[in-house]
Target: Ubiquitin-like protease family profile domain-containing protein
Amino acid sequence: MTRLKYEKTYELTFEDLRFISSSSTGDRIVAMLSYESCTTSVAAEDSTIWLLSFKLGEQTPSAQYMAKSESSDIEVGKMYFRYADHFSGRISSMCKLSLVVKAIEEKLTKRQLSMFKKDIFGHFLECRSFPFSGVILHNLLLRQVAHEEDSREDQLWFQIGEHLIRLSIVEWCLVTGLSFGVDTKQKNDEMEQRLRNTYFGGVHRKISVNEFDAVFKKLKFEEMDNMEALKIALFYFTDRVLNARKNHCQINFDWLDQVDDIEYFRKRPWGLLSWEIIYESLDNALFQKDEKLKRTRLKNPDHNIEKYNLYGFTSGVQAWIYEAIGGLPSTWVVKTKKKIPRILQWKPMVYLIINFAEVYSFFNDESRLEDILQTLEPNSTESSRKYWLSVKDYMPSIPDWVHKVFLNQLWNNGDCAVDSLVFDDRLNSYLCGRQHTMSKSMTDVDMLLIPVNLDGAHWVLARVDFRKNKILDGRSECYKIVQEITISILLEVSGCTLIRCS
Model:
């Protein structure tokens, strides 16, 4: 793609656009990129217009990055850490998914295990071998992109090569198969604490996470009522996997009391609860770690690896990485049969054979990165599943700044700043069919207008005609730019066929 450099602001006049609607007034047109100065004129033509407006400023310098510890005012959309400030790290994950699955399978009777398999966490029993890969997660966290601090949607963004990828409740739902919704209080406010009194030494006994592991393995499940065994196993999984933390921490006694009301426990939005835990852990994982590394190196020049912990369901994050970043080597992870939820599709390799330099190089090499999925979408089978239906009403929209970053990369190759966007973040939702702008679906749009600057000297306006399934302009150089920059996205939406115009 030609690298365009702009030394002044170019303007599109109404005359540049007039030919678009001259053949038929009332055409339904989407102007993907346009100037604010054109908005009034275009809308004056008797057409249905949706404008995503921006204006070009003077050439901007290369993207600036700032370490997360240096300033809380870092620009949204920029990576917290400059590439030059990236460092090796060693993560300890508190999540022991495979160990917990093994303990449950070994301790429960055949009947009790069958009951667990049919319950809310039963599908995770297939994750018997799911080793943690701290090297891959550390490389991901180094590439975290700054987001709005007051975001109510709690979505995390990362930059892999030139691509932005999102981890939000949508991705979390599809990967884990855990449900969302509004959490409610238990009807009985006075917990009976029966399970504590019966099996765990009473309400005054303190039990750490590590101690509960030992207690669980000593329980005689074969002498226990099957429903009692199920309740204890469900709590064990929830507290040790979804709420994973350091061994010396106390178990969540509230959850232990709540599981005795098993119907209430099952209805809790464990997707939301586990998401809140992992979000907090990931978002703060590298805070000031670079500064700590620098201080330690002053005392010990040989120190080159920063160690830190991750809490919550880190296995779910791994599975999302495997889904979002295509082409990962088979020495890191292998995709098995197509299953849902998606965590069941992956078999990670032992992390000891993966080194930092190998992953770091892969994440920066565009030639090795295959299908990068900015967001995950449900397939036909997933769309009807209870866990997906539970999250549909809570789906976050793509933030406005993501489109600005995307347009900077896509349209100007990073040389010009996108100053403003009209209609905020609806472009992606609209094109994906999740949200209709002005109550019109994409199938109701006849044309998409795409202004293209040729060699920094001349503006032309290409159009994609959805009625004729053609790209129309008549200039081969314009066609080439449109093809390279935007059509891969448009074809996904419209099913158009590329037809070169003479």
